[in-house]
Amino acid sequence: MEREVGAVVRYRNHRTVRRWCRSVVMKIISYNIRGLGSCVKRREILNIVKEKKPDIMCIQESKMECMDEGLGKVLLGSSEVGFSFKPSAGASGGIITLWNSNTVEVVHSASFDHVLIIHGARLVNSDVSRCVCGDFNSIRSEEERKGRGGRVVNFSPFNSFIEDAALSDLPLCGRRFTWYRGDGVSMSRLDRFLLSEVWCQNWPNCLQIALPRGLSDHCPIVLSVDEENWGPKPFHMLRSWSDMPRYKEFVIEKWRSFNVYGWGGFVLKEKLKLLKGSLKEWHLNHGRNIEGRIKETKDRIHDLDVKGEGVGLNEEESEELRVLSSQLLSLSSLNCRNQWQKSRLVWLKDGDANSKFFHGVVSSRRRGNAIHNLVAKGHQSPNNDRPGIDNLQFQSLSSSEAYELEKPFTEEEVKQSVWDCESFKSLGPDGVNFGFVKDFWPEIKGDFMRFMLEFYSNGKLVRGSNSTFIVLIPKISNPQCHSDFCPISLVGCLYKVLAKVLANRLRSVIGKVISETQSTFVKGRQILDGILIANELVDDAKRNKKEMILFKVDFEKAYDSVDWSYLEARSEAGGSFISPFLFLLAAEGLNVMLKTSVNAELFKGYMIGDVPASQICISHLQFADDTLIVGEKSWANIRAIKALLILFELVSGLKVNFHKSMLVGVNVDDNWLFDASYVVNCKIGRIPFIYLGLPIGGNPRRHSLWIPLLEKIRKRLSGWKSRFLSMGGRLVLLKSVLSSLSVYFLSFFKAPAGIIRSIESLFKSFLWGGSEDIRKINWVKWDKVCLDRDGGGLGVRRIREFNLSLLGKWSWRLLTDKDGLWFKVLVAKYGMTDGRISGGGRQASLWWKDLCDVRDGVGLSIGRWFENNISRKVGNGEETLFWKDRWLEGGSLSIHFNRLFELAIDKNITVADMYRRGWVVGGNGWRWRRHLFAWEEDLVLECCVVLENLFLQVDVLECCVYHLLTHLVPIMMTAHKDVIWNKVAPLKVSLFAWRLLNNRLPSKDNLTRRGMHLEDSALCLGGCGVAETIDHLIIGCEMSSSLWIKILNWLGTFGPLPNVVTDHVSQFCNILPVGRGAD
């Protein structure tokens, strides 16, 4: 059976649309030839056709005013040729479309202004597929062009065209650009194929390839649809199997029946291998072709329904209908689970179960992850004669800490490691996921523990237990060579459990051997720590007119180029050779080299702070392999950076990409910076620059800093506009994906009000099915949407409050993480006042000012929200201020006994010092600036009464505790929340009920009230002559009221129907148990 497919070819002010018949293997070529009058150009077209053998050839800018069949046969190299032609306008334009008549069936064509449309045969009940291709003379982003720059391009019209037409932009293989000026400088991606959603579903393995450029300044591009044979697909355990009858019994029975002898690792590996074969056979009989079984079940139900409408069903057929209905629900659930696992959509837990959406996601992932060609470069073998690290002083573990790493494995430890892992992610060659291990842990734990203990005793793995899939993840949109991919290892289940156990052990001691400049893989350290330090350093240099340089290091293939001999020596220096975090230990070598250079005054870092006691020197920051070297401006530092990186490269095997690394200067002359970059052979950067995904040195109050975040949200939305999502699916996407996109930015910067409005505007438009260009009615106020479900809303995050809460975490860390490098930097820059970091005044950075405002509640209606909800739990009292901290119920003593606080000599005395001096009446802790009056002495007695039963715990450290910082604003609709958000009902049904009870459905009166002009009258469509309101449509109309009466009779309840929807819901809430019982 053949399916109708549509194709559109569009180029400069011209567009060709064609719909044609499907073939098993199909190719389309689009080429802007820049004139087809010469024999040389025609010969080039013929050579391309002979080599690629396309079904359709689309030629733009033929610059020909006439066309005949003979020329078409010459160009396509076949007598079976069909063509459509649009003449050029003088010496510009001209479209020629050729197709092979044996494979393409064309019904008719039509020509419009700059448009040539060709229609193919259409099958019954088939959707139209469209393919748009050609020279668009437009690009989608700045990444799609390269040149001298200077010209500002508006990408919105072209992107809006693609989004509004619901088209998908395929990745380009072969090269990044398709048009070249010829000077080797200017180039762009002007030519492309754009496919409709239906096309992608019919041919999910489409790819477009840019061919080598010939006589034209454009490259021919080929759209190829073919079944690529990659060999047998790897075995995957499906999540849906656990819902199938007798699955668990089958696995347990098979596992017990396997008799394998040998080492524990061999036994476990072979049992899993045998079980894999058995499950494949079981799946063929029970889990294959679920969609076909669903269709057969539906057809049988349809036949029984038709028979029931006529002669009726007998008892056997009635029972069969009941069983088929239950079977259909079960099969549909299994199919939904399978599609969920294939699409990798973790967020979709209670959204749409729409197979079209899932198929679209699967197809998109395949296109994005497909590798069609790689540019191979020469490989140079590394030099194994490397310098040693004997003279470097690494931190090491104590003997007790080393024992904790090397003690025997326990069953509880192994089980905890398994349960910490995601159940259905990243299957290795064995196809076994952790969900399977968790489900059958009682049966297989004995084999697992034998494998783990034998590895502990022998230190060896059985051959094949560490087999690995190497997966290349594209780092850019159009990857061409191996450096454009990130290699990921998918190991088998056995090796993954072992690595997880070792990682959990190492996590407890890794901070002892890793310096404070490294902010990854260490408990208590965060990626934002390095961003904070870098921003504060740049701000300090700017305000104090200091000259500073920053060198952003780029390592090539960081995780797979470390030399093993260096790792062995490094691990011995660390005290143990068990570590899944090998690269972290390797990167520590650079830290030791830089610190040694600073101590030897070979490299001068950046000194921050004016008080000598708190000054701190920062020479570098690290997050895994993301390294930022910081220092004063000097040629000595430039030479030291180059020498240290080359030395580290020789020692560790990590290759530094100097040409991709970047040198940034603060208050540094451009000429000096250019000379320095020439010496280092690196790029020159400007403030602000990106480090760890956030801008360094930027102004968060400017709109330009937030443009990348807005574009990221828009880009994600553009990929979903053509998806088949209900409001329930859009709500899940909004709450789980879209809201999380902004978390990283909002965790560090305080968003301006205008940015918050822009983000929430995008969210509102997406929720109600609109876009930036297409406005739709926002039926419910955003303030109400952002309330939680108990308060009558949908639980969507408010950006402003979410931003404040994320910044509040910094205020919390200021109290609990005083040993971090980031805290020391802030103390050095701003100093301490009353036990906390000072505000800094006019010398404070914008980030620190915003954080202090959030901490102190400046500009907030709720006042000092953070301080009023934080108290200290006193242990030994060494770090708690007696007067100023809130360590007693009801607030600080400086507030309750303000008069005594003003008279006290030592206002910063700690609780421990006060306790040691004596806080009883007459104790030495009470020291005043003058003699107290009688009423003031009464205050002292009152304070002593508060303190008399308090005792300090010498061996207990103090900590901070926080109270609930949120509150709910209940509204009337919360009375029906249990009915609306019933777990049995699909989310889109619950949302309909939510809108119904809020009177926010598009009835005629609601549309009129919102300014919509209705062409027909405002009366009910049922013909009852009453104005169409929600209450009337749902209850009052004759059609709906008769239906409700039948439902009440079915439930065994009689009585009049209320006239208001809310009263009607309340009535049903009272009889709901009767309804459930009837069900």
Task: Explain the overall architecture.
By secondary structure, this protein is of the alpha+beta class. The protein contains 38 helices and 34 strands. A hairpin with a 2-residue loop joins β31 and β32 (836-837). Residues 1-24, 345-353, 379-383, 572-580, 964-973 and 1074-1079 have low confidence and may be disordered.
Question: Care to give the gist of this entry?
Answer:
This protein is α+β, with helices and mostly antiparallel strands.
Strand order of the largest sheet: 7-8-2-1-9-15-11
Q: Outline, from the CA principal axes?
A: globular
Radius of gyration: 35 Å
Number of DSSP helices?
Answer: 38
Name of the level-1 CATH class of the largest domain: Alpha Beta
The description of the largest β-sheet is: 7 strands, mixed
The CATH architecture of the largest domain would be 4-Layer Sandwich
Portion of residues in helices?
A: 40-55%
CATH level-3 fold name of the largest domain: Deoxyribonuclease I, Chain A
- Uncertain stretches of 5 or more adjacent residues: 1-24, 345-353, 379-383, 572-580, 964-973, 1074-1079
Into which percentage range does the β-strand content fall? 5-15%
CATH-defined superfamily of the largest domain: Endonuclease/exonuclease/phosphatase
* Overall pLDDT confidence: 79
State the secondary-structure class.
Answer: alpha+beta
Distance separating the two termini? 44 Å
| Count of individual beta strands | 34
GO molecular function: DNA binding; endonuclease activity; kinase activity
Protein name: Cysteine-rich receptor-like protein kinase
Keywords: Kinase, Receptor, Transferase
InterPro entries: AP_endonuclease_F1_BS, Endo/exonu/phosph_ase_sf, Endo/exonuclease/phosphatase, RT_dom, RVT-Znf
